[in-house]
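Task 17 of the worksheet. Students: predict the tertiary structure of the chain below and write it out as structure tokens. Keep your answer in the requested format; marks are given for formatting as well as content.
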Amino acid sequence: MDVTVRVNGRVRIVDGDALKSAGYRPAGSQSGRNAGLIQGLVLDIDEAYFHCPRSFQFAELWDADTIATNRVRSLKDLLSKS
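Model answer:
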């Protein structure tokens, strides 16, 4: 599917007990009696909009060679990539 959504906001990790107390329950095809919540992500979204899917192709985010190269680079090197 060639649809990309850009989301700006904040994310925080929440433990399973906090999710349970907020009323969240496991869902999906594997949510039987033994299913449980360990942790989750809470997204506080400020804005969301459709984004050109070609931007991911140009960024090479899913290119295996780019991922392997970036794995050994420092954060400083990654941020200065032009």
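Marker's comment: The helical segments are 16-21, 54-59, 64-71, 75-79. The chain has four helices and two strands.
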